[in-house]
Design brief:
single chain, 304 residues, alpha/beta, seven-stranded mixed β-sheet, 11 helices, 7 strands, 48% helix
């Protein structure tokens, strides 16, 4: 994965999966000059957290290789992923034998002394529907946008364009492009500020505001443009919120100044209430009252 769009996808998967698993990127496959984009091993202690992660959590419920594609992959490209999967399982078996101190030749891997090693799943993430792949491996639809290959392959194909527009699919849809990515960015922006998806995605979207140094010149830059537009809107929102907060603080200080000039004592509890108020209409009402009030109770609503 060499371009920045792919790097964004890889980092998004790694950081999201790190909440509930041991997730690594660019795991080297020793028997070949290949690297797994993201390898995730679930942490049983965080099953409850994984359950709230929606589809990404479901896909990470077993040791898995995640291979996101910027374009719809061909059969040849998926075969390369399958080679990684098989080679990586071979490497895991070798490590298990070494850890157990077993002296078992590689060609005798079915010997009784061979430590059991779970066969890792392969999760192929595609923006569009890879018809040749689905046909070749007789993939069956498991749920909207998710297909399972014949059982022996332990392979799942996620078609981003077919995923339902729900919060459960959001983290995966952020790896898409065009309409899928635009909808995902809008859904992300609509979430509460403390949403876990924002804690993962927002720093990466800002870091990978792709294409800001050069104009978009090919289809590869479409993701860059979508992310750049989202980041610019996000920054405008932050600036607007900062200005609103500054105006609210200025108005609160004006209320306190008016009360001080009038000689009205303001206890710490009331002072804090005034300073944390953000509604401009409330602060304006308090200021008007503070100018003519004889007591604090006449200024603050509900003060007894």
């Amino acid at each position: 994965m060499h371009n920045r769009s792919d790097q964004f996808a890889k980092n998004m998967l790694r950081d999201g999966l790190s909440l509930v698993s041991a997730a690594e990127t660019e795991v080297e496959v020793l028997a070949a000059t290949q690297k797994i984009d993201v390898y995730s091993v679930p942490d049983p202690a965080r099953d409850a957290e994984r359950a709230r992660m929606g589809l990404l959590g479901e896909l990470a419920a077993e040791p898995s290789l995640f291979e996101p594609f910027h374009g719809t992959p061909s059969l040849h490209q998926v075969r390369r992923c399958l080679r990684k999967q098989l080679t990586w399982h071979h490497e895991l078996e070798r490590r298990a034998r070494a850890a157990a101190g077993a002296v078992v030749p590689d060609e005798d891997a079915d010997a009784p002394t061979q430590p059991p090693v779970a066969f890792p799943a392969l999760v192929v993430i595609s923006p569009g529907r890879p018809e040749t792949v689905l046909d070749a491996y007789r993939c069956e639809r498991a749920q909207p946008g998710v297909y399972h290959a014949v059982p022996g392959l332990v392979t799942r194909v996620v078609v981003l364009a077919e995923l339902p527009r729900t919060r459960a699919t959001l983290m995966l849809r952020l790896l898409g492009s065009g309409r899928v990515l635009r909808d995902a960015l809008a859904d992300l922006a609509a979430l509460p500020d403390d949403a876990w998806e924002k804690s993962i995605a927002t720093p990466l979207l800002i870091h990978f505001r792709l294409g800001t140094e050069e104009p978009a010149i090919d289809k590869e830059d479409e993701v860059s443009a979508e992310i750049r537009a989202w980041v610019e809107e996000y920054e405008r929102k932050l600036r607007a919120e900062a200005r609103a907060e500054a105006r609210a603080e200025e108005a609160a200080r004006a209320v306190l100044t008016a009360l001080r000039v009038r000689g009205i004592a303001v206890p710490d509890v009331a002072r804090e209430r005034i300073l944390v108020e953000k509604d401009p209409e409330t602060l304006e009402r308090w200021l008007e009252r503070a100018i003519v009030a004889a007591s604090l109770a006449e200024v603050l609503d509900g003060l007894s």
